[in-house]
Amino acid sequence: MSFGYNILGFGSGAGGAAPYNVQFLVLAGGGAGGTAKGGGGGSGGYRIIATKAHEVIPCTAYPITVAAGGASQGATPTNPAVGGTGGTSVFDTITSAGGGGGGGHGPPGPLNGADGGSGGGGGGYEPNAASGSQGSGNVPDTSPTPTGLQGYDGGDSYGNPGNAYVGGGGGGAAAVGGNATPSSSPNTGQGGVGGAGKTTDISGACVQRGGGGGGGHAHGASPGAGGAGGGGPGGGPAAATALTGGGGGGGDGVSPHAGGTGGTGIVFIRRLTASSCSTSGTTSTCGCDTIHKFTADGTFTA
To answer: Is-contact 210 43, C-beta < 8 A?
Structure first.
């Protein structure tokens, strides 16, 4: 006697469908630049796998968090502040750390850049030759995983009595932030250049993201350029480019002294079109693949 149905695929996932693998980019929010001759913000943590190697289970919902960039901090020359740290982005077990804020300048001393996915640049200081140190990148350490480093360290600032005070560049997803260039004569010097971001074609086109912010400046010094991939230039408040996880530029010595805000993050998930009928996020196709893009919090249903 037949009961009119069969039980298929027991133990192979919801609806009998087998698990499949996806590629991802999980990019966190960039850090904001430091205030008043401050360091550039570090880029948000950049975690990617180059092939479809992350397993998902059909019909399972995976929450997505897309981070905001670090907030610009208002300040005066006597009330320095480190730029705000970027938010974290998340997909499944993958968490990318926000970029570290750039260090601020001024009494009671130079403020160091903050640690993060990429480190913020150090802030300058004028009453003596002290310099703010860079923040460390790849904090927490993700190097043992297939995604490798999240990002790199920021650069050191430079301060010299009677000369200009310039901030270090924020670290990028692919390179360290540049150190500020010492003054060769009064009121000269160069803020550190933001570290470069990484380029990937996960979205269907080659796009560079995760540039660090440029260091700020004072007097006749020059600001540092933003890192390629969305980093804001120094001499702020110069914000990073949205959806790149770039770091904001360090502030300058003229009111309002604020550093630039960090860039928002983004999440991509790329799969073989034949693997699923999921329409999560904003979808597009490239060859045999479907690409899911998230620019705000959401859910990927595999």
So the answer is: yes
Other CB atoms within 10 Å distance of the CB of residue 265: 38
Nearest to 35 by CA among 204, 236, 197: 236
Rounded Cα distance between 253 and 234, Å, is 11
| Pick from 259, 248, 223: nearest CA to 31 | 248
Residues 6+ apart with CB under 8 A from 2: none
Quick one: which of 233, 206, 261, 262 has its CA closest to 45?
A: 262
Q: What is the pTM of this model?
A: 0.89
Among the residues of 111-250, which ranges form H helices? none
Beta bridge partners of 20: 56
In the predicted model, is pLDDT for residue 128 greater than 70?
no
Angle at 145 between CA 179 and CA 71, to 5 degrees: 45
The CA distance from 213 to 234, in Å, is 7
> Quick one: tokens of 146?
């297939």
DSSP H or E stretch at residue 281: none
- The confidence score (pLDDT) of residue 124 equals 60
Task: Place 108 in a pLDDT band, splitting at 50, 70 and 90.
Answer: low
Is the model more confident about 77 or about 82? 82
Contact status, residue 119 vs residue 152, Cβ threshold 8 Å: yes
Q: What pLDDT sits at residue 299? A: 98
3-state secondary structure of 173: coil
Helix/strand/coil for 16: helix
User: In angstroms, rounded to a whole number, what is the distance separating the alpha carbons of residues 266 and 277?
Assistant: 22
